[in-house]
Every structure is written in C-alpha cells, then in structure tokens.
Design brief:
Distance between the termini: 26 Å
Strand content: 15-25%
Helix content: 25-40%
Number of strands: 20
Largest sheet: 16 strands, mixed
Structural class: alpha/beta
Radius of gyration: 21 Å
C-alpha cells in the first residue's frame, strides 16, 4: 500500500509531479469550466454532434431517458440521451460509441422503464457498445465521469449523464426541466465539469480506454483527433495551458494502489498563501482534515471556505457522511485559533437546499482543480477517480490565467449569493477576505448559510468513529472496527 501523503515533506508552492500527485501533465489548446447541468448538456451535445469516429462515455451512472433540455439554444437532434445516441450513429455510419458504467449501480438502473428496452436494442447494434465495469474491490465504485470525443475534446468532472443533474445557475424553485424521467421533481443541483481540447483530451481518452479494457471490453476503433470537436459557442477560459491528470485507483491483485488525488489535495492545501476555496459533496476525509488542521494553527495561514450540501442523499449516507462531517468540523474548530475556517450551504430564492455535487478546489488565484473526487476517504483510496488541475503559475506569464481563476471563483460565489461577479470582485478587493466578502454579500433569498454542528447521539458517534461506508482502502472495507476510531485521535 502507498504511504500516507501526510508523511511527505511540506511544500511552499504546488509542483505537479507525475507519479506523485498526478499521472501525467499534458497541454490543452483550450479549456473551459462548465458550471451546472444545463450548460454541461448543451456543450456535450454540440461536441458529440461533431464526432467523426469515436465517443467514449465512462461514468458512475448513465440513463438513456434523461432529457438534455436547453433554455437558451435551439437544439439539433432528439432531447433524450438514448434517442440522441441513436440519432448520432444513424447520421454517421463511421461513428462508434462506447459506454462504460459502474456495474453495481447498473443492475438497478437498467430496469428503469424504457431504459431496459433501449439497452436491449443496443446489445444488437454493431456500433453502440456497452460494458459494465466490475474491476474494483467489493464495495468500491467506478466514480469518475469522463466523455472523450475523437481524441480531440474531453469532459471530466462531477457530472454523470444521468437523471437529477440538470439545472440552471439560478437554481430557481420548481423549474419544469428539473423533473426526472419518472415525473418526480428533484432538488436544485449544483455541479461542474472541465472541457478540454488537445493532448490532455487524448490522455483522458487513453485512461477511459484502459478502464474499458480492464472491464473486458474489446479493442476500440482508432480516433486520430484531427478534427475540431470543440463545442459551438463555448468560450475558452484558458488557452495553451498545461493540465495535470490525477487518479485514484484501489489496490487489486493486478493493480497497484494509486493515490495521486490524495497527494494532490495535500499539496494544494499546503501550497495556499491566502485562500482555499472548495466545493464538495462531502467533508469527511481524515487526511485532508489533518492537512487543514496544520494550516489553521499557522498565524498567517490561509482562509479556508468549504461549500457542502445541507445533508447527503439517502438515509445511510446521511447518517455516515454527515456524522463524520460533524465530528471533523468540530475537531477542526478546536484548532481554528485565528478564526479562518467556514463551512457553508447554498439555498435558492425559496430557501430550498441546493445540492452541492461539484468537486472544485481553488487555491488563491493560482490553481483550480475540478474532477470526480469528493473530500471523503473513499475518493482517496477506494473508488476509481479522475481529476484535472490547472496551475497558472506565480509569474507575469501566468497573470491572464490567474485573473481567469479569480473570475471563476467570483462567479461561483455570485451564483451562490444571488449577486454578480463584479460585486463579489469589488467586495473582495475592499476586504481582502473571502469570508468577509461572503458575509457582506449575504441577504434573504438565494444565499449561503452557515453550517451548524448538530448534536450527535451514541449511534451516530459510533458510525463516524468506525467510518462505515467510507473506508479509505480495500483493506479497511472489512477491517475490524477496533482498528479504526480516527476521530478520537483528531479531537
């Protein structure tokens, strides 16, 4: 097993090191941060419609019934994902589509209404290929979300092509397009992905292919990446920039332990000078909490702002992840000598919870990381994950990229606070503090609410102490509970 990332020496600035905190560093001709489901599905459709040879969709979930609605653009082709894929291969006899998804979740999902018949039909299609990824330890998941198009463009982030992901950046109450295929409304949903073009997209396609082959898939057709599949109307945030690709892969008989993502998180936290801004579905990783605790005890350390949903999805996840969050946050508060840690939840205009599913870390105005990994133990060593990171550098040559990273962070806060990017930027310029900027920008309606540590009963404490459902490695999945109890050591 790999040594804990915390045992590595402290660093003063981020260095992307293949084999340590990333797999590869590759150039992107252009890259763009895509926030929330409407924009993601819009640009995904545009890119897929340009494909000439090959599309790979590799994710945690996949639902043919999902409608990729757009409130701003006229759409080409059917709305439903399954019908859109049929339309793509019908109009292009050279196109092959490969769909890889986590096997455990698929057992239930393939029985979803019309999805069963669509998948059954595809089993006999010569150019639509489906495979279930069961190459993981018991209890682990294929959790990454990658779409690779003709070795030219790729999407990597937190958004699966499935139900419940569509939403606009205003997250308005009762939006008709948020209805799920079964007719039920789902809660407002906040998410993010990164679109990339160039060698980094080719590398992501290679990673998706490797997962396909591990799952027993046959060789794919070649895609030379010579055509331009960049989505229409998608303005790039970055041009000619290097991007690191970081992975988590659990130890198996035929696979070594890969913990690049954990090391990247630790290095990001240690490299921060002024601000750590993070959005995550969970806040429950022991090693990340320990790295944060180190920075909180520094007199001149960074402000740390984390956005989470109010509660996790599902009763058991809520009991485990939310209880772990409460224990970790309470322990960190004891170490927050200089009052620099905040945990917030976004709500919409009607006060409804906005479920934070995005996985974003922004360090100062220098580094942005977007991917599939959450701030929990599973993402550090048990599930298969893939993240992307852009380091804008700290010299004059990186100033344009640094300005763009600031705009992205300000835009995210503007979205959550019902404000404008300009207003957020002005308040931050005045205060020099992200926490003060948030405090000055909060108002009734769409806003950020403070996290309140709940009272925990004995059962909840036991669940958190023993990390049920959130082990950090295959060995811990079935380890005796007496070997656990990390929360007691932290606080």
């Amino acid at each position: 097993m790999a040594k804990s990332a915390l045992k590595e020496a402290n660093i003063t600035r981020l260095q992307l090191e293949p084999g340590q905190n990333c797999w590869r560093v590759e150039e992107a001709r252009q890259a763009s941060v895509i926030v929330d489901g409407e924009a993601y599905f819009r640009y995904l459709r545009h890119a897929m419609a340009k494909a000439k040879r090959r599309i790979i969709l590799a994710g945690w979930d996949f639902d043919t019934r999902v409608e990729m609605n757009d409130t701003e653009k006229d759409l080409q082709g059917p709305l439903k994902v399954g019908d859109f894929i049929d339309w793509l291969v019908a109009r292009n006899p050279d196109l092959q589509i490969y769909i890889l998804r986590w096997d455990v979740g698929a057992i239930k999902s393939f029985a979803r209404g019309s999805m069963f018949f669509k998948v059954l039909k595809w089993q006999f299609h010569p150019r639509i290929h489906l495979k279930l990824d069961g190459q993981h330890p018991t209890g682990a998941a294929q959790h990454h979300k990658i779409v690779a198009i003709d070795d030219d463009v790729a999407f990597c982030g937190g958004i699966d092509v499935t139900a419940g992901r569509w939403d606009t950046r205003t997250h308005e109450p009762g939006h008709r397009y948020r209805k799920q295929p079964n007719g039920e409304d789902h809660s407002p949903w906040h998410d993010a992905s990164l679109a990339v073009q160039g060698p980094v997209a080719t590398a992501l396609a290679s990673f998706a292919q490797s997962r396909w082959h591990k799952a027993g898939g046959k060789d794919m057709i070649e895609a030379n990446g010579s055509q331009d599949c960049w989505p229409d109307d998608l303005k790039p945030d970055f041009k000619e920039v290097d991007i690191g690709i970081a992975r988590t892969q659990p130890e198996m008989d035929d696979q070594e332990d890969v913990r690049e993502i954990e090391q990247l998180y630790i290095d990001l936290i240690r490299s921060a000078k002024r601000i750590i801004y993070a959005e995550s579905q969970y806040f429950a990783s022991r090693h990340i909490a320990a790295a944060i605790a180190e920075r909180l005890q520094e007199q001149d350390g960074p402000e740390i702002v984390v956005l989470n949903p109010i509660s996790s999805e599902g009763w058991l996840e809520e009991q485990v992840m939310d209880t772990a969050r409460a224990r970790i946050f309470a322990a960190l508060q004891k170490r927050d000598r200089f009052n620099r840690l905040r945990l917030y939840h976004p709500v919409n205009e009607a006060g409804e919870e906005i479920y934070v599913h995005a996985k974003i870390v922004i360090i100062d105005d220098q580094v942005i990381r977007i991917g599939s990994s959450n701030i929990n133990n599973r993402s550090m060593g048990l599930d298969t994950e893939c993240d992307l990171v852009i380091d804008a550098g700290d010299d004059d040559e990186g100033s344009a990229a640094r300005e763009q990273i600031s705009r992205i962070r300000n835009g995210l806060l503007a979205e959550h606070l019902g404000s404008s990017e300009k207003n957020i930027a002005e308040k931050f310029e005045q205060t020099g503090s992200l926490m003060e900027t948030i405090q000055l920008s909060r108002k009734p309606g769409r806003t950020l609410r403070d996290y309140q540590v709940p009272n925990l009963d004995d059962t909840e404490k036991w669940l958190a102490d023993n990390e049920i459902l959130d082990p950090e490695s295959p060995d811990e999945m079935f380890a005796g509970i007496t070997k656990r109890g990390w929360f007691k050591r932290l606080g």
